Amino acid sequence: MTRTTDLLAPARLGRLELPNRLVMAPLTRNRAEADGTPTDLMVTYYAQRAAAGLIIAEAATPNAVGQTYPNITAIHSDRHVAGWRRVTDAVRAAGGRMFLQLQHGGRVSHPATTGLTPVAPSPVPLPETVFTPGGHRPAVVPRELSRAGIESTIADFAAAARRALDAGFEGVEVHSANGHLLHQFLAGNTNRRTDGYGGSVAGRVRFTVEVVEAVAAEVGADRVGVRISPGNTVNGIAETDTEALYPALAERLDGLGPAYLHLVHADPDAPLFHRLRAGWTGTLIANPVLHDLTTEEVTEAAGRLRAAGADLVALGRPFLANPDLVTRLRLAAPLNPVRDRYFMYVGGPLGYTDYPTLPAPRPHRAAPDPAGLPGAV
């Protein structure tokens, strides 16, 4: 079996049968309405990419204070549910399946966007500016979550998961990566608590575990995935014990029986990757590091992850620029390049729904029967 045919082979994920092993990674694109409701443009965008084995829809906030930037999606009101339902209906009609990523920004937020003071494990501000409706502004000192605040945030995640199923999603992905709230609890430089949610590795993984536990209790563990990004320094994160932190987290999560663990920027040569794979009894989704977005590199990187033990491969920018990525990989056709990065976030169809697809194949016409031609004997 070649690497391409392996990637395009069917797979099972929890209760889902997937037509291929390619997952569209969650990609925040800032095309929602100001209140977080999905738009008509988003309906088109996701339906265009329905051939993915699974689409993990972009990060949606479980409450108002969790919003990071303008025009990102949310899932904490009936209006949000109705908007997302239009997306999932369109994707399902095109043959696709979707999970929704649940993301709380924590300190990666600003009152100019939400009207609220951001919350975090500790009052440690983001060491950079935050994009708001009025442009970039200095980050503010977040409010430390109290025990009651932790409990209400966990409840918000569980309620958001229920709303996601009401909106037609097959499941949800809890985002514990990329410097957002759950990752802020994991990292020592952002979590300076001295209670049971800080200090030791066991204390720092507790919040993520309790969020996943509550979400699984609400919708079923086989409808829940978890995303992690070991060693990722985005949004001012600094981990000093990555090699100990993530195996401990994975062990606790594995005991809850979620549908999958999603590893961002996975390195199949790294010892930590193999340690996580060996200790994780469920499905592992791995997201490769890509440089040149070519058919050859995507196939090679995905194949290396599969050979190292990943069950499914999540791709971001290749799906962003290629609505028909599955077809292009099957045919070994060239990939569209990603356009100017600012098009990812400025709104409108440019760089969003206007990427070209391959021409439809011409219908095959059988050769005419010579016996039926004029003058035939």
Q: Care to describe what's here?
A:
Helix content is 33%, strand content 17%. The chain is α/β, with parallel strands linked by helices. The strands form 4 sheets. It has an 8-stranded parallel β-barrel with strand order 3-4-6-11-12-13-14-15, surrounded by 4 helices. The chain has a two-stranded antiparallel sheet with strand order 1-2. A two-stranded parallel sheet has the order 7-10. Strand 3, helix 2 and strand 4 form a beta-alpha-beta unit. The C terminus is likely disordered.
The topology string of helices and strands comes to HEEEHEEHEHEEEEHEHHHEHEHEHEHH
Question: Approximately how much helix is present in the residues?
Answer: 25-40%
The gyration radius over C-alpha positions equals: 22 Å
Uncertain ranges = 372-377
Sequence of strands across the biggest β-sheet: 3-4-6-11-12-13-14-15
Q: If you average the pLDDT, what whole number results?
A: 95
Structural class: alpha/beta
Distance between the termini: 49 Å
Largest sheet: 8 strands, parallel, barrel
Number of helices: 13
Strand content: 15-25%
Total count of strands:
15
Shape type: globular
Descriptive labels:
377 residues; alpha/beta; globular; disordered C terminus
In short:
This protein is of the alpha/beta class and 377 residues long.
List the helices and strands and how they pair.
Elements: H1 3-7, E1 11-13, E2 16-18, E3 22-24, H2 40-48, E4 54-61, E5 73-74, H3 78-93, E6 98-102, H4 111-114, E7 119-120, E8 129-132, E9 135-138, E10 143-144, H5 147-166, E11 171-176, H6 181-186, H7 201-204, H8 206-219, E12 224-228, H9 242-254, E13 260-266, H10 271-279, E14 283-288, H11 295-307, E15 312-315, H12 317-321, H13 325-331
Parallel strand pairs: 3-4, 3-15, 4-5, 4-6, 6-11, 7-10, 11-12, 12-13, 13-14, 14-15
Antiparallel strand pairs: 1-2, 8-9
